[in-house]
Amino acid sequence: MNTILNDRAEITTLVDRLGRILDEGRFGELGEIYTHDATVETPGGLARGLPAMVAQATRTHSPDRRIQHLISSVIIDVQDDTATVRANFVAIFAAAPTAKTPLSQPFYTLGEVYNFDAVRTPTGWLFDRVRTVPVWETGTRPTLAA
């Protein structure tokens, strides 16, 4: 397979894994898709480095709610050992299930554009920067956990 196609497939997998990590609260796995000194800028704030990223994700994705990230239109431009990535993200927030309400209506939905910078490392591609740009929202924005 063509090297460019391999690179794009590997980077697309990083984007997909980010969605799963955020959906399932597996924040300890962020180090498998980001460099140790990565920068993340989202509506939840600016985080530099993996410990700050894990803290921010924990604060914005609390266990009292379910969040599903839908990702589409992933566009990847590879230049040697760097790449830029653009993807549409829709994050849907709903209350966590209870015995009485195993499923609930979403109370907040956010549409964003994610812009990633990726680098080729000895172990494969990793993100070293992401900046999200909110495009639209509906519902009541959840308060951040303390």
Structure, explained:
The chain is of the alpha+beta class and about 150 residues long. The protein is built from two helices and six strands, in the order αββαββββ. The chain has helices at about 5-25, 50-60, and strands at about 35-40, 45-50, 65-80, 80-95, 105-120, 125-140.
Please render the helix and strand layout as text.
Elements: H1 3-24, E1 34-42, E2 45-48, H2 50-60, E3 65-79, E4 82-95, E5 106-121, E6 124-139
Parallel strand pairs: 1-6
Antiparallel strand pairs: 1-2, 3-4, 4-5, 5-6
Number of distinct helices = 2
How large, in whole angstroms, is the Cα Rg?
Answer: 16 Å
What percent of the residues sit in helical stretches (DSSP H or I)? 10-25%
Q: Uncertain runs with pLDDT below 50, 5 residues or more? A: none
Most strands sheet? 6 strands, mixed
Tell me the number of strands.
Answer: 6
Mean pLDDT: 92
**In what order do the strands lie side by side in the largest sheet?**
2-1-6-5-4-3
| H and E string | HEEHEEEE
Given helix and strand content, the structural type is alpha+beta
Q: Per DSSP, what share of the residues sits in E-state strands of 2 or more residues?
A: over 45%
Cα distance, first to last residue? 48 Å
What characteristic shape results from the CA principal axes? Answer: globular
